[in-house]
């Protein structure tokens, strides 16, 4: 490991970075004029708590804006070095981090997926909302099975969430991550909850997965429209859909 990487991975530096990120995000939250859709979202979703709040990758900087101060929340954060300062930032924002992630074609135990699933189950049982990305790493805007499995075994509904600001930086990353800028307008959009029966068969699980995917696409499209923008991540979604069609045509 190089000197720069060792310095940035040190606990003191990561604590500082996490605090700076959290302070900046609080500033962005205070200086943007947010609208919520639907307007009675908290009244409706509050009755369903604790819920599983679903987001697309790339929304991790902004998603906590949708949390009410009284809501206890835990968020799934990867075990990577970058995940460490994200976890620290979340702590300063009032969100507890659960470390671990799923695995695509790799040993899920190595990535901490099994332990993370158990920790999320305990959080929901204890009344904490759980926040997690629906898509798996490197495949943006395609819902994976993990969030649907958590909903099935916990009995808690999945609520898709999108948070967008009119002034922002859109990164040219695989997940089209965005981070808001101060002094603009913002939109928080919550979609329809998806319940997954405990006895759901494979076909029902796939239907639930597709429903979450559709709802997440819908809330993002609506949130961007409310601030007068187009969703930059929609292109990633379209490219994956085209790839899937191409694979099907060659099957």
Automatic annotation (TrEMBL):
Transmembrane segments: none
Domain DUF374 positions: 68-139
Record key words, sorted: Acyltransferase, Transferase
Superkingdom, natural source: Bacteria
One family name in Pfam for this protein: DUF374
Alphabetized CDD domains for the sequence: LPLAT_DUF374-like
InterPro entries membership: DUF374
Gene Ontology molecular function: any one: acyltransferase activity
Name of the protein described by the UniProt record: Lysophospholipid acyltransferase family protein
Species assigned in the record: Microvirga alba
